[in-house]
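#struct-help
A.M.: can someone run this one for me? Single chain, 103 residues.
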Amino acid sequence: MAGMDIYEDSRTVSRSDLAAWLRQLANQLESDGRLFYGAAGAVTVADTVRCELEIERENETEVSVEIEFSWTEPARVKVADEEQPSKDDEAAEPTDATPHAAS
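D.P.: on it. Structure tokens below:
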């Protein structure tokens, strides 16, 4: 299954604004473990994460720094609807309450 983008933002900011944004992310992680994004989005970060730091020279004048962290969420448990028996369950149950005589 391919990855699904949840949110992406790209902008040009000053070095001090970048530092403030990184501090804000760090504070969110430290306080309640959620990262807030967009108008009303948030993602809960696991207690243990895999981290990557990549510093790369793109060409003679451009350098990029990528910070990535990822984690695995616990599998979601699917709850069966017990109130609605399936067609197979209905067919397996006797519909006639009268006992059948053996031949």
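A.M.: thanks! Residues 15-31 form the longest helix (17 residues).
D.P.: also worth noting: Confidence is low (pLDDT under 50) at residues 91-101.
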